[in-house]
């Protein structure tokens, strides 16, 4: 023991020595070591139960055959007793190195588990056959399976997707594994999977795992962030910035952005309209009925002008942008059809029957701005409003 005490502990470790008797209770633990000579009156099987499976039991003996047949399953090493005095320091140094290696491995595994399981992202490790070697808790939540039912399984089993269904679908999860292996570097993908929570959109990072030689790939590791809700928020924000919240038509602000980007130097027709007696209806029957009229107007616009850009300019004012060089007589026919269909829809409610749409139409050959075109159609609309009762007027430069 004097020699062993002189051996320097491993970095970050200390060691202490205790002489124990048969009656003592030996503590359990990974870094406990029990060293016995072959004269110790102990039952090795019972000793192993006391110290636990992770402790080390070492016997110093020159005649291991006398007890090894019975004790072999419980003994970790045998040190020759005759040469122990000369080999004591060496044997003990190697033992300490082994204990440190095992403790470091346990700590690394513990650090990994704690880290991946506290993250909300799905994490998995796969071999080259596509089998999941290890996954984190978030992955199990997503697939609604226990780790024991995931590890060692392939993508199709885990996500409950028959291979033939997967091959006919737009899923790309398995194919991206091949892409990562070919690229030999970390890659980022947008993927979709059918999880226990429904179809989910994932932002997935995948990277190859290299063997000790630094060249051979032995598997992949993936981290997937569920961006379904984020994508929905983004879509909602984009929709709100582009659409009128009441009617679903393009709003005025986004229309000007759209027109500046898409309609430069094009032959255009713009149709402006407003609803006659709408203000009177709103004041008499309230905004709820007024909103209903506006929704009906938007629906009829989209029904008659399905391929054109319908805009709610504000209040009871609407616009239609036609950018395909359509003949004016065809535009006028569509406007008239809209006016008739709108009036028929509004006549279904006695309170709405006096509402009608007055319309102004202006055309440009591409030599002016969209704002100029809107002004011209507004002038034509003002002329139609003078007559009222659901009229339309074409701007011809003389209004």
Annotation keywords:
399 residues, alpha/beta, Beta-Lactamase, Alpha-Beta Plaits, six-stranded mixed β-sheet, five-stranded antiparallel β-sheet, 14 strands, 42% helix
Give the uncertain stretches in residue-range form. none
Strand content: 15-25%
What's the domain count? Answer: 3
Count the beta strands. Answer: 14
Note the gap between the termini: 114 Å
Mean pLDDT: 88
The name CATH uses for the topology of the largest domain is Alpha-Beta Plaits
Rg, nearest Å: 40 Å
CATH second-level architecture of the largest domain: 2-Layer Sandwich
Helix-strand topology string? HEHEHEHEEHHHHEEEHEHEHHEEHEHE
Number of helices: 14
Helix content range: 40-55%
Walk across the major sheet and give the strand order: 9-11-12-10-13-14
Largest sheet: 6 strands, mixed
Based on CA inertia axes, which overall geometry fits? rod-shaped
CATH class of the largest domain: Alpha Beta
Look at the structure and name the CATH superfamily of the largest domain: Reverse transcriptase/Diguanylate cyclase domain
